[in-house]
Amino acid sequence: MTSDRSVIVDSLGVGLATGAYGVSFGALSTSSSGLTVLQTCVMSLFVFTGATQFAFIGTVASGGNPVAGALTATLLGSRNLFYGLSIAQKLRLSGPARLASAHLVIDESTATSVTRDTTRQARLGFFWTGLSIFVLWNITTLLGAIAGENIGDPKTYGLDAAVGAAFLGLLWPRLATWQGRLVALVGAAVALGAIPLTSPGIPIIIGGAVAVLLGMLWQPRERT
Amino acid sequence: MTALWWGIIVMIVCCFALKYAGLSVPEHVLDHPVTVRAANLIPAALLGALIAVQVFGDGSSLTIDARVLALGVAAVLLMLRVPFLPMVFIAALVAALVRQL
User: Are the Cβ atoms of B55 and A88 closer than 8 angstroms?
Assistant: First the structure.
């Protein structure tokens, strides 16, 4: 039987490790993408879903239309919908509590709550992880954003290259399966092909759409 | 109101709606094999496309520069299970150093 204490300790560990990424988000947002500190902090406070935020500033950095970029980035956040579905029965939240908690539905809070056996421990995992990430993510975003604004040309520090590395880090766990690898590769290849043919921001949408479509059509044979 | 702010507002509204809907709608509404499968594929597909554009794109042309090397370094570090932040930091450092040559 897992103790409440160990659930909280696990959650705080995940919270600390994840919350620190805010530095890289903040710095890249103001240096590579040219957002203001305020815009950067508003994103971390009110969007609060890391991959989506990175995707948005990535699209903006490559010269894409921000609204189209926002829609693409939101698509990346659509997994939160399914996270909510899978933890709803675990957390058993009533109306107002649900509204107040929804903001914390992210990768990590889902991972630390969905595996728990009891509602009590699922809630402990969800809130300790979600809140510790929320607090840290916003503090580190602010620090990173201020630093990013004061360092001059981001290319000097290789910060433009850091965006690609950050995306690869987010993608990495998805490359564990052949299907994940294939889909990512198709997305990348199609996007590359579309770069000279379309306006900025569009290649990401086309690449993503084609890869999802192919992934849907390609049914790996069931092992028996 | 700049386009950037509009983009941010779109994300705030849509992302919260997605999170809240997930906690609220009855499970059977979305629990269809096709939607679940599509949702599983979207992150890998979009991140693959984002990496390609971020690393090789230069406006509407393709270039190969220090960013490619940094991506390779990042891949090696991830294989060695280096955590996210040091991995990103070292990748950026490599790109910065290569540009000094």
Answer: no
* Boundaries of domain holding A107: 4-174
For A132, counting Cβ atoms within 10 Å of its Cβ (0-12 exposed, 13-18 middle, 19+ buried), the class is buried
Same domain, A180 and A170: no
Determine the Cα–Cα distance for residues A25 and B36; give it in Å rounded to an integer: 29
- Mark whether A146 and A196 lie in a shared domain: no
**Could you tell me if A102 and A206 lie in one domain?**
no
Total domains, chain A: 2
Asked whether the beta carbons of residue B85 and residue A66 sit closer than 8 angstroms, the reply is: no
Residue B22 pLDDT: 87
Residues A170, A181 within the same domain: no
Residues A29 and A80 in one domain: yes
Query: Which pTM does this prediction carry?
Result: 0.79
pLDDT tens digits, one per residue of B48-76: 998 998 899 887 788 899 999 999 999 99
Query: Nearest-CA neighbor of A19 among A55, A47, A44, A56?
Result: A44
Task: Say what the pLDDT of residue A224 is.
Answer: 45
Report d(CA A2, CA A19) in Å as an integer: 25
Say what the pLDDT of residue A45 is: 95
Mean pLDDT of A65-84: 86
How many interchain CB pairs under 8 A, A with B?
A: 312
- Which ipTM was obtained for this model? 0.86
Return the axis-axis angle of helices A50-61 and A66-76, rounded to nearest 10°.
Answer: 150
Q: What is the largest CA-CA distance in chain A?
A: 59
Same domain, A29 and A87: yes
Asked if the Cβ–Cβ distance from A168 to B75 is below 8 Å, we say: yes
